């Protein structure tokens, strides 16, 4: 799961396959990797790839603002 999320962010937002370009604990928003529109793209990816529904209440940085946060969120789902 972590590898798929990491690969998606690297490919679609950082336009690289360099694993060193992304630290799993870094905030996407604080580092300028993803903006609010990008978060919506990540939600679409999560829903399609992992067959989960991200509810409105789930759309908070604690769930979606880093690779680690997304993995923890999906583990709870």
Give a description of the structure:
- With 77 residues, the chain is an all-alpha fold.
- The protein has one domain (2-76): ACP-like (Non-ribosomal Peptide Synthetase Peptidyl Carrier Protein, Chain A, Orthogonal Bundle).
- The protein is 55% helix and 0% strand.
- It is built from four helices and no strands.
- Helix 1 (2-14) runs antiparallel to helix 2 (36-50).
- The longest helix is centred in the middle third of the chain and has 15 residues, at 36-50.
- The two termini are 13 Å apart.
- The model has no long low-confidence stretch (mean pLDDT 96).
Task: Sum this structure up briefly.
The protein has 77 residues and is mostly helical. It has 4 helices and no strands. It has one domain (2-76): Orthogonal Bundle (Non-ribosomal Peptide Synthetase Peptidyl Carrier Protein, Chain A).
The CATH architecture term is Orthogonal Bundle
CATH superfamily: ACP-like
* Number of domains as seen in the coordinates: 1
What is the makeup of the main sheet? none
H/I helix tally: 4
CATH level-1 class: Mainly Alpha
How big is the Rg?
A: 11 Å
Structural category: mainly alpha
Distance between the termini: 13 Å
**Global morphology:** globular
N to C succession of SSEs: HHHH
Essential attributes:
77 residues, mainly alpha, Non-ribosomal Peptide Synthetase Peptidyl Carrier Protein, Chain A, globular
List the helices and strands and how they pair.
Layout lengths: L1 H13 L21 H15 L10 H4 L2 H10 L1
Helix pairs in contact: 1-2
